[in-house]
Every structure is written in C-alpha cells, then in structure tokens.
C-alpha cells in the first residue's frame, strides 16, 4: 500500500532520513517542510494521505495545532513525531498518535503501516509498541 506523505520537520537531517525510509518503502514523499504555514499551503494544493508532524517547527511549537487542522479539516491522517511526547499525552483530535524521537527505521515503517491501514479501514489487531495512540 503506497501513500502520498508530507514530512513536516524542521531538522533537515531528520527530514532527509525520513524521506529515504519512506521512499524505500515505496511511498511518495510529496514534500518536506519546516513550518506550519508552508505545510498548510502544500496540503491545500495537493492530496496528502499521511503527514508526519513534529511539534516544534521553525515557527515555534505550532505542530499540535497544525496536526489538528490537517486531521480534522483536511482529512489527512496525522502521526506526530517528537522528542517531547508528553506535550500530546492527552491526545489531539483528528490525529492517530505519537512516535517518540529518536526512532529507528522499523518503528517508522510499522507506525506508518498502522496509520495507513486505519485510514483505509483495514482491521488492525494491535498498534506497534513504539506508537502511543490517541483515543
């Protein structure tokens, strides 16, 4: 199952590594952006199946509101990736969950696969242990 994925991450090396992992899995990375404004513009211009969203972006701690907006208003499946998972411990409406950074390729792969299966309505028996689910 391939998907159109937007990476929203202000650390260039992290974004580049995520791109490589996702493309190796056969997904199309439609872009990597470092701030909420550019992410909103890109999501409005093209179809996004999944967004990997950091909480602290180049324009501040805007990732939480951005994730909520992408999930609730734009129909994008959202996974947060952050070194500060406590900031979203109560969950964020319209989003799937959070993957704690740093993480490894396998954790990214299983979390993305889980989120995409949920998006397509495919039954999933359990979530990957690295992924903290919301609601």
UniProtKB/TrEMBL annotation:
GO terms for biological process: regulation of DNA-templated transcription. GO terms for cellular component: cytosol; protein-DNA complex. It comes from the Bacteria. Keywords: DNA-binding, Phosphoprotein, Transcription, Transcription regulation, Two-component regulatory system. One of its GO terms (molecular function) is phosphorelay response regulator activity. Residues 4-116 form the Response regulatory domain. The modification 4-aspartylphosphate is found at residue 54. PANTHER family: REGULATOR OF RPOS (PTHR48111), TWO-COMPONENT RESPONSE REGULATOR ORR33 (PTHR48111:SF1). This is Response regulator.
């Amino acid at each position: 199952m391939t998907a159109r994925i937007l990476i929203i991450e202000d650390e260039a090396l992290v974004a580049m590594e995520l791109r490589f992992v996702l493309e190796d899995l056969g997904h199309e990375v439609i872009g990597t952006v470092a701030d909420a404004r550019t992410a909103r513009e890109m999501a409005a211009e093209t179809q996004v199946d999944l967004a990997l969203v950091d909480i602290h972006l180049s324009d501040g701690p805007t990732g939480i509101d951005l994730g909520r907006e992408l999930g609730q208003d734009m129909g994008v499946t959202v996974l947060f990736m952050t070194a500060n998972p406590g900031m979203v411990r109560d969950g964020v409406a319209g989003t799937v969950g959070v993957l704690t950074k740093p993480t490894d390729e396998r954790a990214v792969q299983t979390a993305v696969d889980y989120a995409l299966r949920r998006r397509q309505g495919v039954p999933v028996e359990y979530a990957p242990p690295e992924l903290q689910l919301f609601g």
